[in-house]
Amino acid sequence: MKVNGKIIAVTGGGDGIGRQVVLELLRRGARVVAVDIRQDALDATVDLAGAGDRLTTAVVDVTDRDAVAALPGRIEDDHGAVDGVINVAGIIQPFVRLADLDWEAIQRVVDVNLWGTLHVVKAFLPHLQKRPAAHVVTVSSMGGFLPVPGQAVYGATKAAVRLMTEALYAETMGTPVEVSVVFPGAVSTDITSNSGVDVPGGATGGSSRMPTTSPEDAASTILDGMEEGDLHIYVGKDAKLMGVANRVAPRRSIHLIQRQMRKLLG
Ligand SMILES: NC(=O)c1ccc[n+]([C@@H]2O[C@H](COP(=O)([O-])OP(=O)(O)OC[C@H]3O[C@@H](n4cnc5c(N)ncnc54)[C@H](O)[C@@H]3O)[C@@H](O)[C@H]2O)c1
């Protein structure tokens, strides 16, 4: 779906990839509703955007089903309609082996990444289905098809939203609702600290020698893919390469990532 003139909600719009998606949507002529759990982060996005009434914000925790359910109606009241939703909000888990991951941390990452995405998709779908053209985009992860040691449950949630999104694609075929799922590799954001996670060396930047994609480039790739109507959108050379490697040689690709990432586990 071309985004010019459309009204699009972006979860996680207060920081990182989501913030850059908001800014890029505005550049491409959309009206945008940035959604985030953090008011201060949304305020910073608004300051950067300087987009007047083409950008509004909503402080919503995506794990709060009732608050999310009320969101599309609020957007219709403010903007007249809603044409798309981009699920970017997400967190990582503490970098520990599954055996050492406590139930509270497991619950939190499942709540935000899986339940949060489900809440948003279920809330917006009936509204999107009334539109002449509409689009649902969900950000999964390279970690959703390739296991990262120390991110077992994170990866499981990202694999789950991938399958959910692909099923939605199959279910909406022949309707005006388009569907895309995004697989970013490493993107240089503050997801580690935003998730309250402590990582030796930093997961996506800091002293890590892993090449990363900038959030700006990630946002452009996501919106190019959305506007092209791609089902699968790979962000970064790492995600593209490992996507192929994982299909051609699944076990070897797991070994490769394990060797690269094992120091994260100490
Ligand atoms: N950074 C990476 O390397 C990377 C790689 C693959 C996938 N991803 C995925 O991309 C997405 C964005 O990640 P990012 O790196 O930009 O992270 P980020 O921490 O910079 O941004 C995530 C935003 O989501 C918000 N958020 C968190 N929990 C929320 C909740 N319950 N309700 C509403 N908002 C909430 C945060 O406040 C934050 O502003 C995530 O889904 C992440 O899993 C990131």
TrEMBL record:
Compositional bias ranges of the Polar residues kind: 206-215
Gene Ontology CC terms: membrane
InterPro entries hit by this protein: KR_dom (IPR057326), NAD(P)-bd_dom_sf (IPR036291), SDR_fam (IPR002347)
Superkingdom of the source species: Bacteria
Keywords assigned by UniProt, alphabetized: Oxidoreductase
Region annotation Disordered: where it falls in the sequence: 194-217
Sequence ranges assigned to domain Ketoreductase in this UniProt record: 6-191
CDD domains listed in its UniProt record: SDR_c (cd05233)
GO function term, MF aspect, one: oxidoreductase activity
Family that this chain belongs to: Belongs to the short-chain dehydrogenases/reductases (SDR) family.
Name of the protein: Short chain dehydrogenase
Organism for this UniProt entry: Euzebya pacifica
